[in-house]
Amino acid sequence: MADLEALHVKEAVDGVINLKDVPDKGATACIPTPDSYEPGIVHSVSVLISGVDVVDHVPVGEPVGDFFEFLISKLDLLNNTGPQKVFTYTFWDEVGNQHDSEPTVYDINHS
C-alpha cells in the first residue's frame, strides 16, 4: 500500500515528457519530503518507471524546499518512451523501513 505522495517531473507539461525539452543531464524527479525524514540521518530512494529502477537506492541529500530532487537520465527516458508510463518511488528510512509512493503517469515522447 502506498503511503507517500506521488513524485512530479519538472520538465513535464500537461502529463507529457518531451525528450526535446529534457536537458542532456536528464529530467528532474521531485519527491515530496516524507514525514519520516530526519536531517543528518541516512535515507535512500529508488525511482521506478513501469516497475524498473531508473534511480537505484541513491542516498538522499538535503531537500530543495519541500522536495528531494533526483535526475532521471535521458537514456532511461528514451528507453521508456510511449504512453501511460507509471512513475513511482520507494523511500527507505534510517532503519530500512520501506515506504512506497502513489503512482503518477506520464507520456514520454521523442519530440
Query: Radius of gyration over alpha carbons?
Result: 13 Å
First-residue to last-residue Cα separation:
35 Å
Which architecture per CATH? Answer: Sandwich
CATH H level: which superfamily? Immunoglobulins
The largest pleated sheet is described as:
6 strands, mixed
> Which structural category do the helix and sheet elements fall into?
mainly beta
For this entry, give a set of tags.
single chain, 111 residues, mainly beta, Immunoglobulin-like, six-stranded mixed sheet, 5% helix
Provide an overview of this structure.
The protein has 111 residues and is mainly β. The protein has one domain: Immunoglobulin-like, CATH 2.60.40. It is built from 1 helix and 9 strands. The longest helix is centred in the C-terminal third of the chain and has 5 residues. The mean pLDDT is 94.
What is the topology?
Elements: E1 8-9, E2 16-18, E3 27-32, E4 44-49, E5 52-59, E6 67-72, H1 74-78, E7 82-92, E8 98-100, E9 104-109
Parallel strand pairs: 2-9
Antiparallel strand pairs: 1-3, 3-6, 4-5, 4-7, 7-8, 7-9
